[in-house]
Amino acid sequence: MWTSATTDMIITGIGQTLYMTILSTVVGYVFGLPLGVMLAVFDKDGLRPNKAVYKVLDVISNIIRSIPFLILLILIIPLTRLIVGQSYGSSATVVPLVESSIKEVDAGVVEAARSMGASDLRIIVKVLLLESRTSLITGATIAIGTILGYSAMAGSVGGGGLGDIAIR
To answer: Is the pLDDT of residue 31 over 90?
Structure first.
């Protein structure tokens, strides 16, 4: 039956799930947005093409992205325990979303800004990020939904939240 203990457990689970989702999303964007921008800037068609730097960043991004979340969650238990004092993890699918959003910006807009004497930093901030904002918001929505699902999976390794309640 539905008791006050059940209600308290669900409220606690919702709080833990929101905490994991929001924190993971913020951390993902703090690290993922700059990495995605760098990938777009150093790409062969980017502002500052640099094959070596692009390749290194691309390999890092692809390795992180291709590891199944549950395996990643288990692999980073020692790291998360060291950083947070607990053993639940987070996911960041943000990098490829940011890179693809920025690559959608019309090259003509970038060229127009460059011809008006805009610096690379100004082009990144005022053109690339501004012009790709709709796609970035869509990507953020997808990332939040994914991270919310991943936070439920974290319950299978003692991560708390609604996933933990479902397992129990």
So the answer is: no
